[in-house]
Structures are given as C-alpha cells and as structure tokens.
Amino acid sequence: MIPIIFTYILTTFKNLHYLKFGSSSISYPRLSFYITRPFIISLNLLELYINLEYFTNYLYLCNKCFNQLHTFYVNILRIQFSNQIINNTEKSSKLKCFSLSSKIGQCHIYTYPYQLEYYDMITNNFLDGIFKCVRKILLFDEYPFEHEFIFQISKSFPFLEKLTIINRKR
Fold it and tell me: What is the residue extent of each domain of the chain?
C-alpha cells in the first residue's frame, strides 16, 4: 500500500519540488518495493527525504527516477546481501547533498560539507568534523557517552538547537 501511495503522490503532483516521505522513527512504516522495480519518474522533484526497508529499494530509486534531484536523504532499515541484479549505472550530476544512513547497521554516508539541518544516530564512533548547517542531532549508543565525546559533539555542531540522547546503559 505504501509504494502505491508514494507513486500516486509523485504522479499526481507534477510540480512537487520537496517530499519528506515518512519519519526518522525506527517504528514508522518504510517504503519497500518487494517484487518489481517501481516505475516512477519525477522531472521536478528537487529534494527527497525517504525511509526505505532495504538497500535494493534505494538502488531502484536511483535508476533514472529523479533527474533533477539535488538533495537526497535516505534512511534504510536493512542493508543486507541480495541476489537481485539491479542494472543501475546512471549518475546524478545535479546531486549536491546526499545522506544515506541505516538505525540497525548504524552506518552513515554523506556529502561534505554536510548540508542537512539534522544528523541522526550519532554513536561513540563519530569522527570529527564541523557541521554548520545542523540544528538537531540524535545521539544513540548502547554504551555510555563519555565527557570527552560530549565535548567533541559541542565542537562539531556549533549551531545546535535540539539534542536528543538515547543511551541503553548509564
């Protein structure tokens, strides 16, 4: 049902420039194309923020679907091995800001300088950097955050407005 709604939105609103489909919550339903590749082409979409079930869904979406996209934020629940063959060799020359993250695999890949206003799921393994656009962050780890780590976060995010901390141990 969710893929149908997503496709319907893109085909109905022809002049849509910005779409945030879903929430950053791990329990929120995620878009997934279980059987076949979706036939979606959006000539006007510039920014897309989406939650997907599998990495293969991301590969499907990158294959000629959004030729004007300049900002693409994707959160993937499961990055796992797949025996599917996806012929995806297209490059997006307009893409300027990209973020790919996973809440289960705790993986985050992004363009630098990081252009998004939020950065989710930062763990104790966070590397240094200056993130001037980020206003909201979510710290998550199974192990306690140390004083030095919090100090590093304060230096890396000089314009932080909202901080959420999820820690499973004291």
Answer: 1-109, 112-170
